[in-house]
Each structure stands twice: as structure tokens, then as C-alpha cells.
Amino acid sequence: MEGAAKNIRRFARRFWRGVREWCGDSAYERYLRSSVAQGDEGPRLSAQEFYVQQLNRRYSRPNRCC
Amino acid sequence: MKRLGRILIWVTLAVLGAGALGKIALERGESLNAMWFVIAAVCCYLVAFRLYSAFVAARLLALDDTRATPSERHDDGRDFCPTNKWVLFGHHFAAIAGPGPLVGPTLAAQFGYLPGTLWLIAGAAFAGCVQDFIILFCSIRRDGKSLGQMAREEVSQRGGFIAQLAVLAIMVILLGVIALVVVNALKSSPWATFTLAMTIPIALLVGMYLRFLRPGRVLEGSLIGVGLILFVVVAGQWVADSPSWARVFTLGGVSLAFAIIVYAFAASALPVWLLLAPRDYLSAFIKAGAVFALAAGILFVRPHVLMPPLTRFIDGSGPVFAGKIFPFCFITIACGAISGFHSLISSGTTPKMILRESHARFIGYGAMLLESFVGVMAMVAACAMTPGVYFAINSPPSIVGATPDAAAATISGWGFPLTAQTMAGLAHAVGELTLWNRAGGAPSLAVGMAQIFSNTIGGEHLLSIWYHFAIMFEALFILTVLDAGTRVGRFMVQELGGRVWKPFGRTGWMPGILLSSAIIVGMWGYFLYQGVVDPLGGINSLWPLFGISNQLLAAVALVVATTILLKMGRTRWIWVTLLPMAWLVIITMTASYQKIFDANPRIGFLAYANVLAAEIAAGKVPAAKLVDTQRLVFNQRLDATVTAVLALMIMVLIVEALVQWYAILSSRRAPVLHESPYVPTQWAAGYSGVAQGDD
Question: What digits encode the pLDDT tens for the residues B628-642?
Fold first, then answer.
């Protein structure tokens, strides 16, 4: 029973994280993580700057289909 | 023993799918339960995914998980992000699923449910999914290069330029046609027009929230926005019930067309965070919700399909659009079975985010199967309504008659009983002034969806709310495609213009932004206007034009895929891409020829132009209608020219490719693949992209 509850909790956590990643909610956190992993020492973008840059890039190529 | 059990499961699924398909194909007389469609589609998809996609992955592509993907080699946390395969599946599906698989099958239902359903299932399994999967694979092996770049490198310089021009032309036609679908959905409907108009301030509000208050908190912003949108769907009823407000929001076709043109210009020129992006977030959530709700509704209600398997209109005399079942059923279904546009997504964002090569099978092949399933659900929703009602909504008055009684008599005469009272009662029940002459697929799909939803929750008295929810859902994500497409089209115009005059190519230069936005909006806006004033309903001319251009782009993608496979030495299995490519070339060339030269004025652009020109010459056109008729003549000739140019471009590309293929097969030229060099992955075998620091 406890094992099942643990599995459900883990699934719910993963699902929530998946939804956040799918809609872009965690994009900034991912960017910060990636900068750390790459050992990037340069100045990091603020959340606002990152958000605007991200959108400008995404909507300059086909990203929605017929 | 375990293996035997697995084999038994797959054999059972195959037999069940074949049985359900047989039931759909052979049932005569009694109405068919929609569950047979669901069983047939799901079983066929599972078997196709398990067997055919595995065969393509192993024999053709030899997917290699020891090879680092672009997301690993170039990980920058922005464009190149290693992404969990389920999340990327969601991304990819949200990007490829547009209005096409909803509208196409709804229009093709005029031939009956059978041909469209069979093509949706078979076309997806053997053509659409294969195209998406292989182009995704090719792009992964080339650092996420676009279809145009791959065409330039692997086929020829000219091939790349043709692909680029074809994409722009298709974009223009696509945007014009889908805008026409929105116009026909909102025409004379204050409730629907108010609801959609209100999505603009809501998107602006969400845009400012996400930019200034809580930067990037997309879930919060979207939840607020979705809540407000659901509220305005209900509030639309109060507007429709108030005579003074209803007058403000009751617009004709031409006014709506101009409103949409002005809106798209603004959305393209304004900062992307203000209107375009927040609308896209809202649209993505509502789209996902509505598609799941439709699937759940069909499973819960299990409606009976009332449309016959084949109608008399397979002979080409259909009221929704003219043309025989071959090739027009395939051209009309378009995106639900195979869409050239998907190859732009498969060679765009997705290859830069994929974690392992083997995920390309699930994402490329699997997401297209799901899109095909959306098409099957749209077919069920359209065919579950009374056929007479379906034809009444989708037929122009020039075919069925201008008054309700005359139209009802014409439709009843075709063998689909209908009374004017039925239509008046239905329009009242869904909160509309009229449902006659609403071609474009959106209103009939909304009626079908509303009937399924209201049988699930709320019953008859929620029918009007569900109808307007469905209209809002369709119009919202069509406008999203319109915004995003106009902006991308603007960049394409700037890139092409920049070759002639450098400053025009600078994407941050305001005069360039305004001029290129005006050019792209002017181009598709002209097609939209032409559709709105066309007495044959617009959809009759423009949807086939869209279908032809979309399927031609798919042929381009398959030409590129075939060339790459030949260079990889997969000659033995080349039929996997060659057969769908040949099929697409046959149907698009036949359809193009018929749309240009057919003697029937409802099919052939030139024949219609000649009929109108003869009427003008004979003095049969009243002076008040002379200018309009002359414009109609011009429009028909323009459509004929556009079709011919598209067909010609593809023929040139195919000739270029044939020269390449001959050189490779006859060993006159050593094949040169432009793949990125092999780099071994550093990720552990079990790494799935989810455990990034916080699992």
C-alpha cells in the first residue's frame, strides 16, 4: 500500500514537471541549470530578458502547423 | 512463453482492427456505432507503430543510440535542450496539430464516411507518419537543419530555393484559407464574434502578466487566461441577447475579413510577448483540453454515424466542393493523413531537443498517428449529425437555393430529408441566428462536437454553450496559426527582399517590419477577400488549392528523404518513401490539372472564368455587378496561375532529384552525405532527461 502511494506520488511529481516543461514554465530554470552545467562564467540573463529572447527566437521560424 | 503471449496480443489487435475496418467498410442499411471507428483506428495505429515504424527504424534508418544528438552536442539551454521524450512528444504534437485535421475530414464527409476514414488511417500509417519520422531523423543527423537547407545540400541549390519559395507560397494560401474558415464561423454570429474578440484583450493581459509581473510563469498566466476565456464564452450569450450589443458584434463576411487582416498585421508587427505568444499559450491549453474532451465524449456517448458510407457526390457533383472522389478526397483530407507542413516542424525545433535517436520513432511516427486520430474523431463528429443538416450548413445558396424552404427541398431531393423548421430549431438551440450557408467546416464540426458534449454533460440546455465553446476553440487556434504564420511569413519576405535591398532584410528595422508585414498580410488577405466574395462559397476554390499546395510540400519532403536514403545506400527499401511520393505526385498533378483545365466551371478555374467572361461579353451582367464579376474572372485566372506555378516548381524539383538518383544508381557520381560526424554519447544508457537535478 505504501509502495503504491509512493509510486503515485512519484508519477504525480513527474507529470507535474512534464507539464511545466511542456508549456515552458520551467524554461528559465533549465537555462540556469544548463549554464551551470556548461561552466558558463559570463553574465546570465534575467528571467525577463530570457523570456523575451526565448519568445523572439521561437516565433521566428515555423512553430505552428496547419 | 512471454514471447508467445506478446505475439498473441498483437495478433488479437490485428484481427480486431481488421474486423472493425471490415464492419465499417461493409455495413449497409443500419447506422453504425462510432465505437467501430475508434476500435479500427486505434488497433491499426498500434499495429502500424509496432511493426511498420519498427521496420523503418531498424532497416531504413538504423537508429543509433550510441550517437550524441544535437541536443547533447550543442546544449545551450535555449534552442538545443535535451528533452524527455514524453514532453517532446507533447511539444511536437502541439506544433503539428492545427485546424487541418479537423476541417479537412469534416469537408470530405460529403463523400460519405468510408473513403475519408480509410485514407486517414492508411495515409497516416504509410505516408504521413513515415514522412514526419524520416525528415526528423534526417534533421537530427544534420544538427537540426531545416527542410530547405537539406534540399539545398542533398538535392541541389535550385532544389533548396524551390523548397523555400514553395513554403512561402503555401504559407500564403494556408493563411488565406484558414482565415476564411474563421470568417464563415463568425459570420452573423454576435456570440461567437464577441467571444473571439474578447480573446484579444485577454491575451494582452496575460502577455503583460508574463512579461512584467511574473516573467515566464506560463502556467499561472495561462490558467488565468483560460478561466477568463471560459467566462467570455458564457458571457457571449448575454451579448447575443442584448439587441444593442448584438448589433455591434453582428458582422458580415467582408467586415470580418478586414478585421482579421488588421488584427494579423498588428500581431505580426507588435512585440511577440504582447499578443502572439500569450495567445499561443491559451490556444495550446484549450486545444489539448478540447481534443481530450472530444475523445472522452465519443467514448462516453458512442454516437451513431448517420451519414452513409458513400454518398452520390463521389461523382464530383458535391455541394460543399466540386470534384470526384479521386483525387479530391485525398486533397481535402490533407493534414489528417499527410501534411507537408509537418516536415517544417520535424526539421525545426524538435530535432534540436531530442534526447536519443530512437525517440524519433515515438515522436515523429507516433505524434502523426495521434493527429490522424484527431482527424477520425472529426469525421465521426461530422457524420454523427443528420446528413441533411450537414449539407445545409456547408452548402452555398448558389447550389441549394437562397431561401430556407428552397434549400431544404433541394437537400431533401438528394435523399437527405430536411425541413426549414429543423434548421431554424437547431440554430435557435445553439444560439445562432442561422446555420445556413456556413461552409468551411468549423460550424458543422462545432454542431457535431456540441451534440457529443451536451450528451455527456448538461443535455439540451447546454447545447448553445458547448457550440460556442467549440467555435471559440477552433477560431482561437486558427488565429494562433494565423499570427504565427504571418510573423514567420514576414521573416521569409524580409529574407527574400534582403537579397535585393540589404536594409529590408534587417529584422529589427521598423520600416522593414511594417512593409514586410503589409506584404505578407496583403497576399493572404487577398485570397481571404476573394473567398469571402466568391458566390460559390470560397471554400470550393480555396480549400483544394490549400490541399494541393500542402500535399506538394509533402512531395518535396519525400523527394528529399528519398535522395538521402539513396545516398545512405538503402536502395532496397527505397519504396518506403518512393511509393507515397509517387502517390502524392499523382494526386496533386491530377488535382492541379483538373482545377485548372476541367470543363465544369465548378471545378476548373479557367472554365469558370470563361463562363463569367462570356456573360460579360454577352451583356448578361447587370451594370451594378460588372466590377465584381470582372474581379471574379481575374481571381479565377489568378488561382489557375498559382496552381500551375506550384505544380511546375515541384516538377522542376523532381527532375533535379531524378538526375541525382540516376547519377547515384549508375555510379556516375559518388554519393556525398552531409551528415554531422559521429560523436559518441556521454549520457548513461538509462538517462531520460527527467532527472535533471530535482528528481
Answer: 899 999 999 999 999
